[in-house]
Each structure stands twice: as C-alpha cells, then as structure tokens.
What we know:
The structure holds two protein chains of two kinds. Chain A is mostly beta strands. In chain A, 7% of the residues lie in helices and 29% in strands. Chain A has a five-stranded mixed beta sheet with strand order 2-1-7-5-6, covered by helices on one side. In chain A, strands 3-4 form a two-stranded antiparallel sheet. Chain B has 13 helices and 22 strands. Chain B has helices at 25-36, 65-77, 140-148, 167-176, 190-199, 204-216, 267-271, 306-320, 324-327, 331-347, 381-388, 400-408, 424-427, and strands at 8-9, 16-21, 41-44, 80-82, 86-92, 98-104, 107-118, 122-124, 137-138, 157-162, 180-186, 222-224, 227-232, 239-243, 248-252, 255-257, 262-264, 276-277, 280-281, 294-296, 363-365, 370-371. In chain B, the strands form six sheets. In chain B, strands 1, 2, 3, 4, 5, 6, 7 and 20 form an eight-stranded mixed beta sheet that branches. In chain B, strands 9-16-10-11-12 form a five-stranded parallel beta sheet, with helices on one face.
Amino acid sequence: xxxxxxxxxxxxxxxxxxxxxxxxxxxxxxxxxxxxxxxxxxxxxxxxxxxxxxxxxxxxxxxxxxxxxxxxxxxxxxxxxxxxxxxxxxxxxxx
Amino acid sequence: xxxxxxxxxxxxxxxxxxxxxxxxxxxxxxxxxxxxxxxxxxxxxxxxxxxxxxxxxxxxxxxxxxxxxxxxxxxxxxxxxxxxxxxxxxxxxxxxxxxxxxxxxxxxxxxxxxxxxxxxxxxxxxxxxxxxxxxxxxxxxxxxxxxxxxxxxxxxxxxxxxxxxxxxxxxxxxxxxxxxxxxxxxxxxxxxxxxxxxxxxxxxxxxxxxxxxxxxxxxxxxxxxxxxxxxxxxxxxxxxxxxxxxxxxxxxxxxxxxxxxxxxxxxxxxxxxxxxxxxxxxxxxxxxxxxxxxxxxxxxxxxxxxxxxxxxxxxxxxxxxxxxxxxxxxxxxxxxxxxxxxxxxxxxxxxxxxxxxxxxxxxxxxxxxxxxxxxxxxxxxxxxxxxxxxxxxxxxxxxxxxxxxxxxxxxxxxxxxxxxxxxxxxxxxxxxxxxxxxxxxx
Lengths: 95, 442
C-alpha cells in the first residue's frame, strides 16, 4: 500500500496486475494471491520465509534473470515475474 | 531484456578510508560519526533503502523519531551510500587495507578501503517442525518485513508462535493491518518472562511501548509456555498444532509466523578471520575485532536491539576514524545496554522440547531438501555438508546451520567466498577503465 497512490503494471506468470509503486515484488505477489514462489529440489512448493533476503525461498525469475530474491526487488512498470522457474534439477546458478 | 553487465571501480583517489557494511542503525551511526570526522566513508546496504529491518519504512511512509534523525544525520555527514549491494567477498590486501566485492543488479562493484566496519545485523532463528516448509509459514520479523514491503494481510487468520520481544509488536502491526490474530504463543516459561517484564519497570519507555502493543490487539490471546508442534495444509498452511506440553490444540489459519529469536549475521566476520565467543563476534572496548582494521557493531556482537546498536555503531565509527577519545563518553551507556540485553536473553531461553519437534522425515535444509534423519547428531556441520549437501544450497546454511547449532549443539562451519550466491561475472570482474561518480545508489 503506497501513500503515493501511483500504480505500475507488472506481469506474474503472464498475468498482468496493477500494483502500488514502491512495494516489493514479494509483496505484490502475495497480494495477487500467489503463495508458491519456487519449487524445491524435491518438487514441493515454497514461498517466502524470512522476508529479508536471507533464506532464498522467494527466488523467482525477474525479467529473465533467474534466482532473484522477490523480497529485495521493488516492482517496476513492465516488470515480469515467473514462478517455478527453478526446476527440480540442480540449477546452474543465475542466468 | 538484455542484462547490462557493468563493473564499477572507484578511482584510486576515491579509495575509501572506511567501508561500513550494513545500513541498519549500527551501520548508519558508524558511517555518520566517521564521516563527520572528515573521513571518506562508504556505506553499502543490501536493501532497497537504508534503515535495516527495524527502521525499514513502510512503503510510502516517512521515517519518524530517532530513525528520521539518523537518516538526516547520515545524509548531512557526507558519507557515500550505495543501496541494493550484496557483499560477496572481503579480502585483506598486502598493504593491510581491504578489497571488497559486492553485487548489484547493475553488475559488480569493487571497493578499496582502509578499514571495515561490519554492521551486518541479525536474522531470525528458524527451527524445523513438521510442515514448516509449507507456503504460508513465515518468520515473525518476516511478517513485519513483508508488511513494510507493502504486503497486506487484511482478513488473514494469523497464528504467531515463537519466542522473543518481537512477537507482540508484530502481532500489533498485523492486527492494525486488518489481520485476525488468533493466537500469540511465546515458548518461554511465564516465570522467566515475568521476571523480564518486572525488569521493564526500570525502563518506562519500553513498558509504555509494550502496553501500546497490547492495546493494538485487544482480545488476542497471548500465552506463555506454548509452542507450535506442526503445521498442515494442502499446498499451503491451513492449520497448526500448538501445545503447552500437556494439551495440544489445533487452530485454523492462513498464515503461521514462527521464529525463535535472532541469530547474528557473522558470515563476513568469519570470512575475515574475526574471533567469536558463543557465536558472537568478539570486540574490544573500541568495537575492534581480533583482526586489525576490522570493527564490528550491533547485533553481530550480541543481540541487543536498536539502542545498543546505535551506541556500538557510534563507538565503532569514532574509533575506526581514529577518535577513540570522543567515544569514551558513550561507553557506560553501551555497557549498561549490554547488561540489559543479557537479561532479556535469559528471559527467552529456548526450551529443550523445541529440539524434539522435527521428525526423521522433517526437512531441515530447505535449499537441498535434506531431512533430519539423513543427518547424524554426532557429525559436525562440515560432515553434514559433504555427506548430505545440507547447508550447501542457495542460503549457504544460514537457515539450517542455525537450526542444527540448536538441535545438535554444532558450531558453524568455516565461511568462504562468495558469501552469497553470485554471478560468475562478479567474481571475475575487472576494474572499469573510467571511474564513475560515486553517487549512483540504486
């Protein structure tokens, strides 16, 4: 919730949502009803745990860059997020 | 979108006298005091804005009180501030100074500094229990952080179950946001917390604050000696079990906030070879660590809260700038706050039952999905890493290692670069030929 009232348009897994400017990507996703951010190595859904960049559970792909921490990145107009981009296989690190 | 790789290196003339890592209260105080002494100071912070977790501003809102005063003071001090920079390496050079590598969205950042002040703060201690990996199970400070990041928990049924003085303010903040706080369960025994609460009479401001938190969620039960034993749900948390050791009950909820106090972020201190005592970074009277030229302030030297962090930060700033005499007046206040912190720590001692919550099939390492049963109690952390990959994932053991230290009495393993997952291009970064202006915070 931004006191400024400005809105930006972002896409979560291809779905366009209008969110307040200045909020975190994690906040925008939770407010859009998304609770599963990534899939663990065994294939179970995971969402944010620590909210402050420590646990890496909120990793998503943002603008084609994998493994970004949604809790640390702020929303921006045109920003694209995809969940479950981290597949169960051992990932080869950030793109 | 094409990723822009950009390596920034400050020109030799811009070599910083003092690099402060971490922009919470301790780091802000250290950077401001050192810069006020006329030194060339750089403050690096990982977040989108300085303030750390405690002074993190809710999106669109203005800072108040002490936070506002220190933000203003930092700005006026002349210290350079770069936000959104995660430090991944810090190494001592032959001349005794340091080269620090950080990663930003825009690319690598290489910094030369004569002295380092570590103000890396703390994280929450998470303990494994069945269901703790379900989406919707988050930390206590995590709820506060997400709220300040702009998330709304309006209409959500919330259970808060953990330990420490953070439970009540977070419950209050969630209730104010429109959440329905069903229960606040503190695991500590009532007589321990009661003794601590009596101690608060010596600090009226704290007591008033506590009363205000209570008023913020009238009708919400706050129980002592109660802890969570399991969370269940289909793809997300739907209900949790809490017990007082005699009776267990099930509560339906949309969100479980569960964390068990704070643990210091000591990765960079360990990387630099700083000694620790009881898991905390050892410092002398001047906040200097066992490594010459490396100072430390705030939570890494012992969990103590914002007032103590400010005092330690000011002392570290002045001493690292070569003005220990000016810091002398601050020492009694720091020492008193340290004694208060020790009292609080005793009040929220973790009960031994918390070591028995995780079953053999409960995941302990969330990054690599390693279960408790796969890890032998008589190992060391290094063995757990080599045999099971526990602690080898993206968080580099920040969550599971803290849990295993409590569960099995282990010590943290050694730290090596990079201390955060990083791009290969950051580690192989070459200095840019032209130095940009230092004023390019994200």
